[in-house]
Please model this.
Amino acid sequence: MPAEILGGISALKSAFDIARTLKDMDDTAKRNAAIIDLQQTILDAQAAQQEALKKAEALEGRVKELENWEAERQEYTRYPAAPGLFTYAHTQESCGEVGTFPQLCPSCFHHRHKSFLNTEDWNPGRCEVLVCRDCGWHAYVVGSAEPEHQKLAPRPYRGN
Ligand SMILES: [Zn+2]
Model:
């Protein structure tokens, strides 16, 4: 149970205990002090309830976001871009000829983000490389890494 709810329950129990003792008090000063304690306890309980409501709303928003992503994710499939190399592509579009449909970055996709991959020619080596400009992910479809390619590697602007 979240701390805010436990705090609210505890504050309400304290308020109930204070209210129960009020009826037996004859001393006006003590009675007034107890009433002030009671009011403070009720305010604490209301604050705890407000905090719990805020958290519940935030969690509802997060659940909705995850449900939306899950529904959207179902429209995509893992696509074998090269032997041992998978990207993501829209299920209906990925039946076409390679290069006629967009592929999504697998790293971004696993972080619930859709980022289109660019196909770039990197030299030396006449390499064909899939590049994500969002996270910096890249993979060789044709050819292999050369030291000079480090200058061509994308700089990520979105942290994962
Ligand atoms: Zn990416």
Q: What stands out?
A: Strands lie at 76-82, 85-90, 103-104, 118-122, 127-131, 138-142.
